[in-house]
Amino acid sequence: MGSLFNYRDSSPSVKNILLLDSEGKRVAVKYYSDDWPTNGAKLAFEKSVFAKTLKTNARLEAEIMMFDSNVVIYKFMQDLHFFVTGGDDENELILATVLQGFFDAVALLLSGMILETDPTVIAGKVATHTMDADAPLSEQISLDYQLDHML
């Protein structure tokens, strides 16, 4: 069992992942460490990290800083601030890869275009594209594709 514990101790780990808005308020956060045992401690950490990074320009590439004996990797997109925190002995490249994966996933979620929000109009568009049961499969697939991209 000793080797199992050594493996866990030496494997990379993340202490938290933070997504804050342009005012430093939580959009989504997840803590994986007990370094911040209370909600107040977590909020204080978030506020401090946000204040420390606010005036930086981390829009094109991720930035790295040491903060309270932790490595913090961060990047901004529009009004969202992404942070990944690891221990002071963590590999910055691994933490940066975690940040980039998180950043890319959120960017994909936010990249959808909203073409219509009125449910009556959407229902009307769907109703005008009804298919005959005998329609060729290629037309049915095309309709499904159109509906997915229309909504």
UniProtKB/TrEMBL annotation:
**Which Gene3D superfamilies does the record cross-reference, listed alphabetically?**
3.30.450.60
State any GO CC term. Answer: Golgi membrane
- Report the membrane topology from the UniProt record: Peripheral membrane protein
Look up the domain of life of the source. Eukaryota
GO process terms (BP) = intra-Golgi vesicle-mediated transport; intracellular protein transport; retrograde vesicle-mediated transport, Golgi to endoplasmic reticulum
Q: Which UniProt keywords apply?
A: Cytoplasm, Cytoplasmic vesicle, ER-Golgi transport, Golgi apparatus, Membrane, Protein transport, Transport
Q: Which residues form the AP complex mu/sigma subunit domain?
A: 14-108
Q: Which Pfam families does the record match to this protein?
A: Clat_adaptor_s
Cell location: Cytoplasm; Golgi apparatus membrane; Cytoplasmic vesicle, COPI-coated vesicle membrane
Chief place of localization:
cytoplasm
Q: How would you summarize the oligomeric state and partners of this protein?
A: Oligomeric complex that consists of at least the alpha, beta, beta', gamma, delta, epsilon and zeta subunits.
Query: Which family does the entry's similarity section mention?
Result: Belongs to the adaptor complexes small subunit family.
Q: What does this protein do?
A: The coatomer is a cytosolic protein complex that binds to dilysine motifs and reversibly associates with Golgi non-clathrin-coated vesicles, which further mediate biosynthetic protein transport from the ER, via the Golgi up to the trans Golgi network. Coatomer complex is required for budding from Golgi membranes, and is essential for the retrograde Golgi-to-ER transport of dilysine-tagged proteins. The zeta subunit may be involved in regulating the coat assembly and, hence, the rate of biosynthetic protein transport due to its association-dissociation properties with the coatomer complex.
Q: What is this protein called?
A: Coatomer subunit zeta
Q: Which organism is it from?
A: Dioscorea zingiberensis
Q: What is the lineage of its organism?
A: Eukaryota, Viridiplantae, Streptophyta, Embryophyta, Tracheophyta
